[in-house]
Amino acid sequence: MVPTEPHDPIGATWAGGRILSPGETAVRADDHSVVVGDGVFEATGVLDGVPFALTRHLARLARSAAGLGIQTPDDARIREAVAEVIAADRRAGLLRITWSSGPGPLGSGRGDGPGTLVLSTGPGNVWPATERVHLGPWVRNEHGALTGLKTTSYAENAKALAVAHRRGCTEALFRNTAGHLCEGTSTNVFLVVDDVLVTPPLSSGCLAGVTRDLLLELVDVVERDVALDEIEVASEAFLSSATRDVSSIAAVDDHDLPMAPGPVTTAVAAAFADLVARTPDP
Predict the structure, then answer these.
(1) Per-residue model confidence as pLDDT tens digits over 128-139
(2) N or C: which end of the chain has fewer CB within 10 A?
(3) Is residue 8 predicted with pLDDT exceeding 90?
(4) Angle between helix 54-68 and 210-218 (nearest 10)
(5) Is residue 4 included in any domain, yes or no?
(6) Distance of alpha carbon 171 from alpha carbon 164, whole angstroms
């Protein structure tokens, strides 16, 4: 465990090649991450000063940048910045890496300058033992230009989650244009149906979550289209993400799941916890 002192700062920001002072500006007002959300990002938990699955997260960051059509960030530079920002926040429980297309016009057209890299840390998230989630009315477009990319264009997620919070839920789920279950605002979703663990395929429009990928390698999961009415016949369900790991779903709106957590969720969570304990960068 990384030793900390009571006076150690909570939260740090790296930008422009250095650690910023508290409250110091990290990006320009005309940076396209601000102007139009033209950027990509990753977030992961930090355990004892080590960001979990950093290699996988950086690989997805590069894929998202390439998919968005912006310059690919430098892996070595990011790793150096990660070491610096975590050293500046020895209490870090969460790391976020943001890469944008850089400064540009006050519109959709991109500038021709270098990209902007910003890293920040903060305390880890605390989730309830089981979660109530809301199935929202909006759809994910599985054929959209940003499908499968983790971009900073997150307004629809923010809106859906705000609605879920007003309903007393901690996450919102999306359906896709075909009417199948897709994903949450920042999570992938798994159901146990007829004693089989299933999750929507990437063709549904969901993001290839790092935790999702690891779970597919750890346990038996069937990737298939999941009809919305299967929620009502599922014996258990859970969410996965880099900040939640494996989190049991107790209810979807007014429908209570029979078991939360059930035996499958408990076993999957234990297998993932064992992986985290054994391998910080699987």
Answers:
(1) 999 999 999 999
(2) N
(3) no
(4) 130
(5) no
(6) 6
Between the alpha carbon of residue 164 and those of residues 170, 175, 240, the distances in Å are: 7, 15, 17
Prior bond of 261 cis (ω within 30°) = yes
Verify that 215 and 171 share a domain, yes or no.
yes
Name the token pair of 95.
Answer: 């790391």
Structure-token pair, residue 141? 């477009």
For residue 63, how many other CB atoms are within 10 A of its CB?
16
Which single residue is written with the structure tokens 């790793």?
79
User: Which tens digit of pLDDT belongs to each residue from 241-264?
Assistant: 999 999 999 999 999 999 999 999
The domain that contains 53 carries what CATH number?
A: 3.30.470.10
Q: Of 92, 122, 152, which one is at a domain's C-terminal end?
A: 122
- CA distance linking residue 176 with residue 154, whole number of Å: 17
Flag whether 106 is in a domain.
yes
DSSP designation for 228? G
Other CB atoms closer than 10 Å to residue 19's CB: what's the count? 18
In the chain, the number of structural domains is 2
Dihedral sign for Cα atoms in the order 51, 247, 223, 133: negative
Helix axis angle, 75-88 to 54-68, nearest 10°: 130
For residue 105, give the amino acid letter: P
Query: Per 3-state DSSP, what percentage of the chain is helix, strand, and coil (rounded to 5)?
Result: 30, 30, 45
Which tokens sit at 31? 């940076």
Are 164 and 134 in contact by the 8 Å Cβ rule? The answer is yes
Token representation of residue 16: 């422009």
